[in-house]
Amino acid sequence: MLRARFVVFFSAFAAVAAPPLAAASDSAGGGTPHAASVLRVLGPHAERAYAPSTGTISALVKIPAGTTAAALGLDPVAPGVGMLRGRSSDLLAFSTAHPDLHMEIAPPLRTLLDHAVQATNQSHVRATHKGTGVVVGIADTGLDVAHPDFIDEMGHSRVAWMIDMSLPPTGKHPELEDLYGVKSSTGQVIGGAVFTGAEIDALRAMGGQLPGDEVGHGTHVAGIAAGNGGGPLGSYRGFAEGATLVIARISAAGSDSFEEGPLLKGVSFLFDRADAMKKPIVVNLSLGSEVGPHDGTATWEGVLASFVGPDKPGHALVAAAGNNGSIADSPSHQSVYVSSGTKMRVPIVTQVSSGNVQTWITMRAGASLNVGLEGPDGEWVPTIEPGTERGHNSAGYNSGVINGVDSNGAGGSGGGQTSHLAHTPYALVLWSGTWPRGVYNITFEGTGTAELYVLGTGDATQAVGFEGGVREGTINLPGTHPGIIAVGCTVNKSQWTSIYGDSFGTLIPLLDGPGGQLVAGEPRKGVPGEICYFSAAGPTVTGLLKPEISAPGLVVVSSMAKQAAPPTPGGVFTRRCPDPKNGGPNDPRCYQVDKTHGVVSGTSMSAPAVAGAVALLFERDPTLTQDKITALLQAGAHVFHADKDQVVAAPFEDQGGPGELDVEGALDALEQMQNPKLVLPDRAKSWLTVGADYVAADESTPLTVIVELRTADGAHRADMFEASRLQAWVTVNGAPQTAPALVKRAPGLWETTLKLPGGMGGGSLTIGATFDGVDIVASKTLPIGTDIWNAEYPSHAKGGCSVAGAGTGAGGKSSSGLEIVPIVSLLSIGAIFGRRRRGHRRPHSA
User: Which of 153, 236, 641, 690 has the smallest count of CB within 10 Å of its CB?
Assistant: First the structure.
């Protein structure tokens, strides 16, 4: 176990040829609680909730102008941001000494598990585009560096550099290990071994200790992005098989969670090494967290985003969108509109009685809400006003509510004092320790809309969720940041054959039209190219369209780390398998397909497909920036597929973005960007995408609209025509409205946003676009409401309970909890996160 303190992050800066770090977003940390408030509420349970692997909490501190991180005894991670690591008592002491500095802590992130090359048209360009000269950076659970998919044709490692936070330093690269490694409280580097490719080769030749990956997640991800099919079959190749790899293992030994400090240091190492090699780099983050502002203002998101941007050519950053986009499981997101004079309750069900639970609440613009907490045994915290915090503790647990406590953490846990500063629009509800099992209620009074996100850790992992919830707005951090590309999931295939010859498959639960209720009927097979039913949905709370792109992630075969081969405990390939149809003994290898490859599903698998595609764009043009790459990916995308019976493959557009990854299309868009020419659009091949499934009636959230213009053959993007020929149009309840102008972002890619004036709930909005006065895309009609329940289920707008039966299932569960079934019986799946619900309950008034 790593029990380290990052003390002198850049103590050897002068000795290392590293470029200066970029500034984090100016808005970072503006809507997050002060760490001191959180630590006071959690008391003795703080380390277990925020640093379960190391026992040492990472905190980010915003540095005011005129001073430096070093002057405050902090490690600099970006201009204007420093890092402090320690026990909760250390962080509280720092806060007391510096009451005017905002300090932020974040719960651990986790992996986002749940014929990819053919589906994305990458095979069409494989002969000419392999990612040569480009770095693919992976920050994850490690890498099986001896896996044949990461050895070149000369027998050398394709890994140029690697840092492993789970291993002690080698001493061969003291400057880098001191700069990026894990340190003790005395400043000694105790974790963060740095290796070069040549050193990895030497260790392989001598039979020495090699970096590994006993979880297997990082190796599988790396294989999707850049595996070269070097195994005996050679059939499972990644997207950028000629790319150079730089790896950061940011997890502790045997852990599949990631703490804030190692994550930020690991990502910094990846960009630093690529810059030192003078090569462009795309970094993949197949990880995320539900807890946070969901508007990109978390400090640690801003630090990550600081590595990319319009002023960072050759730098790209891709993140998994998350797997919380289905109400078929215990949902992690709820939305509620609170009207004046009404007390609203949002129920959360717990299936265990210990662990840590956090519910983040983001208030939409214009909301003013008091927040409280009811336990199964009664009221724990009455609704408290913005700018206050209050605790409720017992011998077994600590709990409390922090309602918009401000940047210096004013207000005392348990006291309910009011802060002297203007509150920020968020709240945090926590309980940790041993607590009563049952239904908890987050309570609200006031007026406005609140977005709630719940996360269980420790014993409560996969055992807590809203009784009812919504698909919308479930993108995980850091994918909510506008500068980071978030990737959604599409179905790669619905079945596979294991190493012992049995076939397995997945089925999809049936939902009603709005996607808020389960309906009766047999689950169906997935259609390759459709959006994964569990893929996290946008938009963000600020109305930003997310994900930016989707890629195959359901049933993806890729590299399997030897250290994680089933039945290795804790490995992503070791899951409960269905009993064999012949009645023999259970074989734990149902997720293994050959000696070196296995199946995993989730947006964790979608993100590296996009990262590999970005490497191919960099191969063509190493000066591309993150914003241009995003536009090229979207301009190159193709529509989500439908099956032969024309089942709509993208019923919920907020889960998929404007389309599925198309590598050939993105390269074509780049060619058109570099060599523009007049090309006219065709209605049959063009389409319109909206960023949400309803329009906010309270002026709180804009709606993002994307128009994709294609030629008659569908192979190219319409471009270089007069902008005035393309016009958006909008009607509300059939009445024409002034439409915003469409703005070109790339060849064939046009975008706009619109916001309704308040008081228009209960109707509908229709948006379309014309070219030369004739409709060029099919229009879209959306309901208008104060929240998703009022928009999609208006008959229940005044509250009350609604119950719908949940499906049952049998068979094994994947690394994301997704159940698998023998093809011969095709039993239904139950829940992505392994949880069952007898029904679900919406927010309701008292």
Answer: 153
Strand partners, 281: 135, 315
List all residues 6 or more positions away from 839 whose beta carbon is below 8 Å from its beta carbon. 467, 803, 804, 805, 806
Sheet holding 597-600, edge to edge: 556-559, 597-600, 592-594
Q: How many CB atoms lie within 10 A of CB 383?
A: 20
Asked whether 615 and 243 are in contact (CB, 8 A), the reply is: yes
Is the CB of residue 54 less than 8 Å from the CB of residue 252? yes
CA distance 743 to 749: 8
CA pair distance 137, 147, nearest whole angstrom: 17
Residue 781 CA to residue 730 CA, distance in Å, equals 10
Q: What is the 3-state secondary structure (H, E, C) of 784-817?
A: EECCHHHHHCHHHCCCCCCCCCCCCCCCEECCCC
Decide if 596 contacts 234 (C-beta within 8 A). Answer: no
Angle at 22 between CA 21 and CA 24, to 5 degrees: 120
CB 216 within 8 A of CB 141: yes
Asked if residue 669 lies in contact with residue 613, where contact means CB atoms within 8 angstroms, the answer is no
CA distance linking residue 86 with residue 68, whole number of Å: 20
Distance CA(281)–CA(464), nearest Å, equals 38
Please, are residues 104 and 300 in contact by the beta-carbon 8 Å criterion?
yes
Strands 780-785 and 556-559: unpaired
What is the rounded CA–CA span in Å between residue 686 and residue 257? 42
* Residue in 551, 600, 536 with CA at minimum distance from that of residue 236: 600
Tens of pLDDT, residue by residue over 572-583, are 998 888 877 667
Instruction: Classify strands 774-775 and 368-375 as parallel, antiparallel or unpaired.
Output: unpaired
Instruction: Select from 320, 341, 672 the least CA-distant residue to 474.
Output: 320
Q: What are phi and psi of 195, to 5 degrees?
A: -130, 145
Instruction: Report the alpha-carbon distance of residue 124 to residue 129 in Å, rounded.
Output: 9
Q: What is the 3-state secondary structure (H, E, C) of 460-499?
A: HCCCEEECCCCCCCCCCECCCCCCCEEEEEEECCCEEECC
Stretch (H or E) spanning 718: none
List Cα–Cα distances, 155 to 201, 202, 225, 226, 318, in angstroms: 9, 12, 20, 16, 30
Of the candidates 112, 125, 155, the one whose C-alpha atom is nearest the C-alpha of residue 240 is: 125
| 540-562 per-position pLDDT tens digit | 988 899 999 999 999 999 999 99
Query: How many angstroms separate the CA atoms of 714 and 712, rounded?
Result: 5
pLDDT at 124: 63
Specify the residue for token string 């050959």: 594
- Which conformational region is residue 583 in: left (phi greater than 0), alpha (psi within -120 to 50 degrees), or beta? left
Q: Which residues pair with 143 in a beta bridge?
A: none
Query: Could you tell me the CA-to-CA distances from 197 to 202, 462, 802 in Å, in that order?
Result: 9, 38, 58
**Measured distance CA(536)–CA(534) in Å, rounded:** 6
* Distances 311 to 10, 116, 202, 275, 681 between C-alpha atoms, Å: 23, 32, 39, 14, 32
The H or E element containing residue 190 is strand 189-191
The residue with tokens 């014929």 is: 115
pLDDT exceeds cutoff 70 at 18: no
Q: Which helix (H) or strand (E) holds 617?
A: helix 603-620
